[in-house]
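Appendix C reproduces, verbatim, an entry submitted by the partner laboratory led by Prof. M.T., so that reviewers can inspect both the input and the predicted structure.
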Amino acid sequence: MASIQPKQAKIHITEIPAFFKSKLFGHTLLRLFLVFLILWILHSIFLRLYTNHGQKIKMPKYIGVSQEEAIKHARKKDFVLLVTDSIFWKGKPGGLIISQIPTAGSMVKEGRSIYVTITKYRAEGLLSSDLPILYGKRFEFKRKELYNNFELYSRVKEIRYDPGPEQHILEVQYKGQVLTDAEKRTDNIEILKGDTLDFVLSTQSGGKVDMPKLRCMNFAEVRFLLNTYKLELSDLQYMSEITDEENAIVVWQYPNPGESIALGSTIQLKIQQDKPADCD
């Protein structure tokens, strides 16, 4: 008995135009459109996330912030905080950030390392015998050496007549105790870094000093130096918006550097927030 084969359905060529007009074709086309739309949206989102990765962002200001708080904040911004130096700053708590590179407001990429200087928690000590020879030396040279090598400040306590060269050291004191003069040098006296040494300087006339160069120094350093030379600030002008006066930079001074002026004289300064390009 012969088997009966089912007939295969055939679409006649005349039925094709009707298929394109059918609901099935419309629904299929709509589904394809939605699939391509979703794929295009996902692709755009992924591309935006990829291209924005590593985009530059504004560097926060960490100066004046404790190291611990700065590290927590930096981690949230994907920054790495690195301490490169520490300085004892009398009157300031330990672990306080006093300088940073890159500076606040700079545009940097995520993952950037931030190099900071912080204040020490306590001063280190040294002995008076560790100090260089001071008697008979020029004050300005030794003032810089004491600060750079020992973190010691220098202050002019007295100007005394002496037939020798001007502005040379006749006596050095620490907390009222004589460290060195023409007759002796006292050793084994403990001195804390960050403290101040008092100097008696020579003069062949009245109490005069050579005007130091203040331009390119920050205002905190200048104020201390004015106290050292017993000078008074009579006029201070802002050349830009000042957000941090302690770290503002002196761009002009009067009298000019090197001029001989009397102790107690008044000076004029102009400061701005950013360091000029010609300052080292």
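Residues 23-52 form the longest helix (30 residues). Additional entries are available on request from the coordinating office.
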